[in-house]
Amino acid sequence: MDRQQFIDLATSQAWSPEQIARAAQLLDLRPGVAHWWRFSMSLLRGVGSGSLCAGIVCFVAANWQDFGIWGRFALLQLAFVAAVALAWWRPPPDIFGEVGCFLAAFLIGCLFALFGQHYQTGADVHELFFAWAFIGLPFAVPSRSGATAALLIVVFNVGLALWASVFGLDVLIGSAIWGFESRQLALAVAVFANLAVLAALWASGLRALWLLALPLIAAAVYTSLSCAMTAWDGSVAAWALFLSGFAALLAIAHILSNRLLSVLPDTIAAAALIVVSTIVLVRILFDALSDGILASLLIAIWIGGCAAFFGARLLARHRAYGAAA
Amino acid sequence: MIKLSDSDIIRLTSAGLLERDLPANTSSPWMLKLLLGGAAWLAAIFVIAFIALLFEPNTEMEAGVLGALLLGGAALLFATSRALFAEQIALAASLAGQGFLLFAIARGIDVDSPRAIAFVACAIQVAVFVLLPNHLSRLLSAFFAALAWAMAWRLGWLDWSGNTQSAFAGLVDWIYGAVPIAALAAALVFSEARWLTAPLSRWFLPATTSLIAALCVAPIVLLPIERSAIFGGGGAGLAPWPILSLLTALGALAAARYLGSAALMALAIVSAILSTVAFYYELTMPLLAKSLLMLVMAALAFAAHGYLRKREVA
Question: With a threshold of 0.90, does the pTM exceed it?
Fold first, then answer.
């Protein structure tokens, strides 16, 4: 039961404040002592892991000369071995095993950073992020930990964004390095790569909604960027690339919504659809109409209409899912 | 009708709490509110463009009248129609109206300080929160009122040379910016049972959610990035500030947990991660000192975790 339902229930039964507090306890809506205990433990674990990672990153960045190159590598590698040993000693789903796997996956990135700090490999930055994501996989898959998988999804997407030169506005105007069509292709690859990650998560049994939402959101962002490029200077091939990625996103989001009985994937798809259709409309209407007055009004009405349409549809679906569950 | 499990019905009935029919299900998930709110913002940009191109308001009076008319129209639509499309148009009109009104007031009272403009924005948001009869509109206006409040205090010591105000003065402004939001959110959360079924819940309910969300975002807004070495600032001793943001985010996380809101918990976790990233980029504190601080924090957290685990087993 969510908060609004509880409020509706409380209002319909005309509960007093004392009755509200009692009902919230009975329905397990307010955490009791045992809940707070577990929450505190999770929080401390999270803060501990996060602080440890941040401490290691700061240490690597400090590039402390007293240790020498070998000392610094040895220190990080010792930490890595300790994390792996922890995961080996108390394998997941034990919480120590999960923390060990997360730290090991994180330390791989630190080792890459340290290596890059000392040796000129000539590798592009995105290659390092891709390598980090792939080498970290053996720790994400057996740990079944959402945090480790989320870390690698973020790392992979930073790599994709660097590769497709998404950082900075140059994605909208093309660049000398990437041809326009090549950039389109890169964005389409980024969309499909995220959808593949999503399928891999599903296949490996990591089916937490928030985790599946991460690659879906990334795919929606890449789709919108792809649309912005295509709408202004798109060839037939560019449109085909954009539309195939977009169609795949919509289809997978819809399947996911039905499987998980949640409207979150469809909401992400709806948001992408509103953005994409608005971009296309801006392109068409501001070209076709002599002044921007009517175009602005039509686009505002279009966005309002789309949001209302999807809002109503998704709300009905949400209630149907609730009844089915 | 809302759905209760058999065990919930038995528990509530045996406690004498279920004496009437179950109500209709009116809940709307957070992601839909986010979609509708985001779409309204997008639409508002085009409403502003439409109004600006059509009427070409050149004076503050013209902008003020247009803003007031848009807000009045939005209030009328909210009050008279339950249709989602009308609600969306009203929301976009309201956001556009707030933009025009802010422009008019800021120009009209000849405000040239960004801090004063932020206070005016906060006042407009509070007025919209009180007057416009719509849940989503109240969610948005409470959130932006809190952010404008934090920004007003933040702008009080915004100085890109980074040297004119002491870190202490900055800290006092930070407290003025963040603590009232936290205190208000805490008061609403802990008194929830008292107002949940009262008419005031129409305001208090969106305010609770929005203030917790603002508590996740405001500390990031309040970070004195212009004082860091990246921007040539000389404000030494400011590095622990992101730690304050981190603690605020953890407070928001606890409040979100209390309310059982997964979306707010996720926002608080993202805020905590961003605070840690900000800590890394605050370059006025030596990296080794930061590393040591973080490692001590990690050791303390793991030690506390170990203690709780031991007690749990016992």
Answer: no
